[in-house]
Amino acid sequence: MTDFDADVLVVGGGLAGMAAAISIARAGFDTIHIAPEAPPDRRTSALMGPSVDFLRQAGLIGEPAAIGHALTHIRIIDATGRLIRAPETLFSAAEADLPAFGWNFANIRLLDQFRDVARTLTNLETRNLGVTALSGDTVTLTDGSRLSAPLIVGADGKGSLVRGAAGLAMRETRFSQAALVCDLDLARPIGGTSVEFHYPNGPFTLVPAGGNRANLVWIDERATLDAARAGGPDTLLALFAEKSQRLFGAITLASPAFVFPLSVLSVPRAGDRGVVLVGEAAHAFPPIGAQGLNLGLRDVADLAATLAATPRGGADWGERVSRDYADRRAADLARTGGIVDALFRSLLADMLPAQMLRAGGLWALRLAPPLRRRAFALGMGQR
Predict the structure, then answer these.
(1) Which end of the chain has fewer CB atoms surrounding its CB within 10 Å, N or C?
(2) CA 243 to CA 235: how far, in whole Å?
(3) What's CA 328's distance to the chain center, in Å?
(4) How far apart are CA 367 and CA 360, in angstroms?
(5) Residue 45, CB-side half-sphere exposure with 13 Å CA sphere
(6) Closest residue by Cα to residue 101 from 55, 53, 136
(7) Residue 295 contacts by C-beta under 8 Å, 6 or more apart in sequence?
């Protein structure tokens, strides 16, 4: 591999790309991370226990309480007004003998933490450039230069250039719904409880962010959210009070509101011919069940395991890694994608049988402890 510029090229500067670049370099591979500057990511990520454990074991973060907020309860309130409604349900981490289901992190703080770690690794080089083309084992950068490596990691998001240039197939379904996100200050704090109000066009979710602050994720029709945002702060706050059923007193805006389109994206195989995909280059979902970055970190963990299990050397080293990685990821990607897609569609379904199934499922989760524990395991991504 002496003719290559590095052992591995990682393309994409988001959280999954940063985690991948650091994990690969920590495994002893000469790594170049191609990470163009991007606008600050104002979103948050609710990372479940196994994901937080991976971040700590990989040396990506220290004590989670230093940069995040514990999620100890999940409260679901059916606010659809449909004929058949689900019961209000409260899930507690204590039922699973856990101090918390996970932790809610500001993406900006996580990314800063990852960058601090990356600066300590002498075999990890970062290029503040984009990629304009990929051909075989060589990428062309926005300054016209070229880099090559036997293994290329695409962590460049839903519109992944790496995925397209490598010929890796993908399927995407776009929804008329979008997500509005912002930070709120509440008159009455929600503690460690993530509160989900389920409405006909999607949930209105308040996630603990410490003290009286909560991160809002509101899913509704794109036109509805755009109109709400265009109406200004007073319009937004009136809608937030109504959607939260005024359970938390007066609400004030603590950040600007942003609207993101929603879709489901999946790939039949997440690697081939010396190219592997991680994060949203391989999968993307509506923000239901907190699976997005959790699944991306499981990508990184399986990539690290694949690298550890694949003997170095040989002209086909990158190809062997990509095939093994795709095999390792297939079941998890299919299972998680199916669960999240079915859950999101069930929230939107108006048909009476679907309403009955959803309400019956929540009743079962409420009344059957073994089923609740199984749901905890699935939701937390335990394997």
Answers:
(1) C
(2) 12
(3) 19
(4) 11
(5) 23
(6) 53
(7) 283, 332, 333, 336, 381
Sign of the alpha-carbon torsion through 335, 20, 132, 134 = negative
Q: Give the CATH number of the domain where residue 28 resides.
A: 3.50.50.60
Pair of tokens at residue 36: 């163009």
d(CA 318, CA 270): 14
DSSP annotation of 209: -
Q: What is the 3-state secondary structure (H, E, C) of 53-68?
A: HHHHHCCCCCCHHHCE
245: left (phi over 0), alpha (psi -120 to 50) or beta: left
Domain span at residue 302 reads 8-172+263-379
Cβ–Cβ under 8 Å, residues 30 and 123: yes
Please list the residues that pair with 153 across neighbouring strands.
Answer: 10, 276
Does residue 89 lie within any of the structural domains? Answer: yes
For the cut 60, the answer to whether the pLDDT of residue 235 exceeds it is yes
In-domain check, residue 193: no
- List pLDDT tens digits, range 10-66: 999 999 999 999 999 999 999 999 999 888 887 889 999 999 999 999 999 999 999
What is the enclosing helix (H) or strand (E) of 264? strand 258-266
b/e per residue, 87-104, with b = 16+ CB within 10 A? eebebbbeebeeebbbbb
Please name the residue that has the structure tokens 């397209």.
Answer: 164
Q: Which residue has the tokens 């971040």?
A: 55
The pTM of this model reads 0.87
